[in-house]
Automatic annotation (TrEMBL):
GO molecular function, one term: phosphorelay response regulator activity
Entry keyword annotation includes Membrane: no
Gene3D superfamilies on file: 1.10.287.130, Histidine kinase-like ATPase, C-terminal domain
UniProt record, GO biological process: osmosensory signaling via phosphorelay pathway
Regions annotated as coiled coil: 52-93
Record field: catalytic activity: ATP + protein L-histidine = ADP + protein N-phospho-L-histidine
SUPFAM superfamilies (alphabetical): ATPase domain of HSP90 chaperone/DNA topoisomerase II/histidine kinase (SSF55874), Homodimeric domain of signal transducing histidine kinase (SSF47384)
Enzyme Commission no: 2.7.13.3
Keywords: Coiled coil, Kinase, Transferase
The organism of origin for this protein: Cellulophaga lytica (strain ATCC 23178 / DSM 7489 / JCM 8516 / NBRC 14961 / NCIMB 1423 / VKM B-1433 / Cy l20)
Protein name according to UniProt: histidine kinase
InterPro entries for the chain: BphY/WalK/GraS-like, HATPase_C_sf, HATPase_dom, His_kinase_dom, HisK_dim/P_sf, Sig_transdc_His_kin-like_C
Amino acid sequence: MHSLLRRQIRKNLPEELKGNPDLDKFFNAIEKSYEDYDDKIAMIQRATTISAQELKAANIELAQEAQEQKKTLQALEQAVNSLNLNLDNTEDIVHSKQNIVSAQKLAKHISKQAEHIALVTKEKDNLVKDLEEQNKSLNNYAHVVSHDLKSPMRNINTLMSWIVEEEKHKFTQDSINNCDLISQNLVKMDKLVSGILKHATIGNNEEAKSNVNISLLLKDIKSTIYIPKNVTIKVADNLPTLFLDKYRLEQLFMNLLTNAVKATEHLENGIVNVDVLEKPNYWQFSIKDNGKGIPQKYLNKIFEMFKKLDNDVESNGIGLALVEKIVTFYGGKIWVDSKEDEGTVFYFTIKKN
């Protein structure tokens, strides 16, 4: 354990405890809290990626099964209609051996199809139950691992601040700069763990629905995020009020607006436009900027976890993945249109209540 940390702790202990032989056990326990945090962050990244792949595969399988069930039901409906037509013509069925055989085959086919539907439904229910259990386990795992990671990182950051505070007169300017860099990376790691936790639990936490005025929400966000003087955010007058979870909507708009501001902050006159179109069954929002744009080769990857388009040290590669998950959670779609050096438009839909 670092001698400076030992000295700090002993300095603040009561006199009767300073000579206690059990202090070494206490110091060893603190030292163990810093072990294996690199392995743990790798574990949570792998778990999140694997879980997302499993859920995507399961959703595809469920969609295929639903399509098959739809086709089966259509075939059954046609078969039942055909059987009813035959049964309406009683004389033909009684006197026509061919019609009697046809009706018997039809009844047998319907029975088999009903058994198949019952089996597929049971398998689907088991799959959904299994996915719910896996999702619950992942949620618990993410909470535990994030807590285990955050604690030592914050302790290290505190220790670094003590070192700089007490020993900075002995440091060169390069050493002081390196200490600042360490602290910045620890803060970045803390945000990364928080982002992973938000992404893993966004669809599991219970919703606290309320009427959310999007215009007022954007006003609050604009007062929260950093907006340079050379960047202007223009908001349409016809933004709706949605009966949804305010926290999720705030995460959605804040991530998109922050990205738009970063894309335009290098311009003399950066402009970000927030607009909406009302459709019969949903709202179509758009956030447009006149910034640097996104290269074509990255457009199909921007919603993936841990994907970053530049070397922004503050970016953790989770923001757009979180945005997509929130939009999908509300049954909507999100897509992007962008040209390099011209700007980017993010479109997303949210179903009407």
